[in-house]
Specification:
51% helix, Collagenase (Catalytic Domain), globular, zinc, 26 helices, 744 residues, alpha+beta, 4-stranded mixed β-sheet
Length: 744
């Protein structure tokens, strides 16, 4: 509590009124408490001067005969004795001085009493807030548990039974849980923020842009009026289907003498460098895994439209069904976009994608988990020799607006794939290659077109994931605003829904759990001292980011993140402007050192993550929300909620993936051979543990899920260890809530 007091060092010559304010942690604004008056020692409120120990100026007063009698000789000019106080005046003066003194004493007593009452009132308010928080926490626990179940026999049903009874799975979702519920609450908050009037209306204002972008997205009347037009313009700029109508399979296609010369490398540039769409491979700028202080151009396998390569192989009934639906989707969209003979084109494109699927290694394969064996840093000259079907220097020069030398180093993560895909391109018609690349752009952008396109895509999505109901327009547009204006929207979110005090409390939780991990590392009997020292050093170097990046508190810095135009009437054009600007930002990174404080996700993201090549752990404000985290809840609940997630991300630094990187984020073997063998042996136990579980008649793949399982077990253990050591009292004492913090 803070108060303002008078400055007693300066004499006051007039009456002044001063307000005193109280500021508490539970109120957002100052609360006006009282008014106080201050007087100088020589001034009364009626303006009458009082001179103690001196004479009163009587020049303006007539004197009575009694005055003359008491005072001696008359008061002629220049003569007579000094005037004397009458007994009555002396009595009045004494009474006045006494009364003033009593007023001062009484005022001091009242001030002290007021301060005492104010302190008691503040304490009472704090106690009331604490009691309300405990009651809210108790209701939360009681509403979620099933007290009829014995926790020692079925802890899951005991802990979650009440919640499961009260909630079902909505039609538009495949699953539902506490995190999903928090996500819905966050989405409601974000939509209210987007629908609120613009406060900063400047041309470059990121707030104005994100809100105009959102309004352009929900303006389906204008989007439907434009129909396929925006996408048709993109297709025409790429040469059209079959490159301006050259007869499929006719003369000139493979020789390059078609009506419009089929330039494979020009189309490759447009897909990768203009529309940010991966064809045949991905091309990104990211942290160099073996030198985390620099960014590197990285090339990897990519180019499939379906989410998993096995879907192209038709190995089971579901895959065959999905593949048929995918071909039907392709035919339908190609027809809607003016492609002739869409059935033939879709079959040719699907055949090419299937060939790519056959040479693609699944992301779930063990081969893709061993980063060291995948990492290959080669020169541009070596890359050209490895995959000669691509004109690499021309492609990179155009995308990066630079002049690359043959000795420029590139990181390639899939060398076998790149060699084989180059061979596939040699043996495939240029027309098919062109139509495939054009289809990849269409597949990426068609969701931003009219209702007819969106309905067609939803029909296919229903076959893939089983969701019956299409997301409402507002929710779809919120997702797009998050994607294209994440930080701008995040700034609005943290201003309203995440305080700096919450941020500080989360940081305390993180430090507690880091300390818990450090203690556990010291206790591990299977880890030798060399590895233990490296593991503890990695923990000490680990960066922790909570809530939001600091630059979001400065609107002008947010504006710099979105240097492209937005118009309420041109949603599709807004999407293209965003894509092109983000390519520009990505290209600039190649000339700069890595900034390890940058965030991968915006602060409203309902997620947390650990980046091994930065040794960075991030907990956005979006996941630091009730009921995973509540600053007013007992710490036992916070440890069991966000604490387990903090421990989960910490543990990722030492699992089968994160454990390959050292304290600086470099891909380096810091384990001794003996300790790593013991780690692998213990990891094998976790593989076998999870393979004993069956979900929907399918056995869990313990090896595939190993990293997440290690993190889940480690996170829960670390969080429980902290809460068990620190907290032993009960949440509440009444018989209806007789649960210890340990159990909670």
């Amino acid at each position: 509590m803070f108060h303002t007091f008078p400055n007693k060092s300066k004499a006051q010559t007039s009456v002044s009124m001063e307000k005193t304010y109280s500021l508490t942690a539970h109120y957002d604004d100052f609360q006006e408490i009282k008014h106080g008056s201050r007087y100088s020692s020589s001034t009364l409120s009626n303006g009458m001067s009082l001179h103690l120990g001196g004479s009163l100026d009587r020049g303006s007063r007539g004197r009575s005969g009694r005055d003359k009698c008491v005072g001696g000789a008359g008061g002629g000019a220049g003569g007579g004795a000094p005037a004397r106080w009458s007994r009555r005046e002396i009595c009045l003066l004494s009474a006045l001085v006494f009364a003033a003194g009593m007023c001062v004493i009484l005022g001091c007593m009242l001030a002290l009493k007021f301060l005492s009452l104010e302190a008691q009132d503040s304490q009472c308010r704090q106690d009331c807030v604490k009691r309300r928080s405990l009651l809210r926490a108790a209701r939360f626990v009681q509403g979620n548990v099933d007290p009829s179940v014995q926790p020692c026999y079925d802890f899951y049903s005991f802990a979650c039974g009440g919640w499961l009874r009260r909630h079902g799975i909505p039609e538009d979702k495949l699953s539902y849980g506490i995190i999903t519920a928090i996500g819905e609450q966050n989405q409601e908050k974000l939509q209210r923020l987007l629908q609120a009037p613009v406060q900063r209306k400047e041309t470059d204002s990121a707030e104005r842009k994100v809100k105009e972008f959102y309004r352009s997205c929900i303006n389906m009347k204008e989007i439907d009026r434009l129909g396929a037009g925006p996408m048709t313009e993109v297709i025409d700029s790429c040469g059209g289907w079959d490159l301006s109508g050259a007869p499929p399979g006719g003369a000139g296609w493979d020789s390059g003498s078609a009506p419009v010369r089929p330039d494979f490398n020009e189309m490759l540039y447009k897909t990768q460098g203009v529309y940010s769409t991966s064809v045949f491979f991905s091309l990104t700028v990211s942290v160099d895994d073996k030198n985390s202080s620099r960014n590197a151009i990285r090339i990897d396998q990519e180019g499939l439209t379906l989410p998993e390569r096995t879907l192209y192989l038709g190995q089971d009934e579901d895959s065959v069904k999905i593949l048929a639906s995918y071909k039907a989707l392709m035919e339908r969209l190609l027809s809607m976009l003016g492609a002739h003979n869409a059935t033939l084109k879709s079959r040719e494109i699907l055949d090419l994608e299937t060939r790519l699927a056959n040479i693609t290694v699944s992301e779930y394969d063990d081969q893709r988990k061993d980063i060291s064996s995948m990492y290959n840093r080669i020169t541009l000259k070596q890359l050209q020799k490895m995959a000669p079907s691509f004109h690499w220097k021309r492609l990179l020069d155009r995308i990066f607006s630079d002049n690359f030398s043959d000795e420029e180093e590139i990181v390639v993560l899939a060398t076998d794939y790149m060699q084989t895909v180059s061979d596939i391109i040699k043996t495939t018609s240029k027309r098919v290659l062109h139509n495939y690349m054009l289809w990849r752009i269409v597949a990426a952008l068609s969701e931003h077109l009219s209702t007819a396109f969106r309905s067609t895509i939803h029909d296919f999505s229903r076959e893939i994931d089983g969701g019956e109901r299409q997301l409402d327009l507002e929710r779809l547009c919120l997702n797009q605003a998050n994607k294209h204006f994440g930080m701008a929207l995040g700034a609005l979110f943290v201003q309203q829904h995440f305080s700096s005090s919450s941020r500080a409390k989360v940081q305390e939780l993180v430090e507690d759990i880091k300390h818990s991990l450090d203690q556990r590392l010291q206790e591990l009997d299977w880890m030798d001292e060399e590895t233990r020292g490296a593991a503890r050093a990695k923990l000490q170097h680990m960066m922790v980011m909570t809530g939001y990046p600091d630059f979001l508190l400065k609107p002008e810095l947010i504006d710099e993140e979105y240097g492209f135009d937005v118009n309420e009437k041109t949603y599709f054009r807004n999407i293209l402007n965003s894509i092109k600007y983000n390519i520009k930002l990505s290209v600039k990174k190649i000339q700069r050192e890595v900034d390890k404080t940058t965030w991968l996700l915006p602060p409203q993201a309902l997620n947390a993550y650990y980046l091994p090549n930065k040794n960075q752990m991030v907990f956005p404000a979006g996941i630091l929300q009730p009921t995973l985290y509540d600053p007013e809840f007992p710490q036992s609940l916070n440890y069991g909620g966000i604490g387990a997630i903090i421990g989960h991300e910490l543990t990722h630094g030492y699992d089968d993936w994160g454990g390959q990187y050292d304290r600086y984020g470099n891909l380096k073997q810091w384990w001794t051979e003996e300790s790593y063998k013991k780690f692998q042996k213990k990891a094998e136990c976790i593989v076998k543990l999870y393979e004993n579980f069956t979900v929907y008649n399918q056995r869990v793949n313990g090896r595939l899920t190993l990293g997440e399982n290690i993190a889940d077990l480690g996170g829960l253990k670390l969080s429980f260890y902290v809460s068990f050591v620190r907290i032993t009292v009960s949440v509440c004492s009444n018989s209806k809530c007789n649960k210890t913090r340990k159990l909670i």
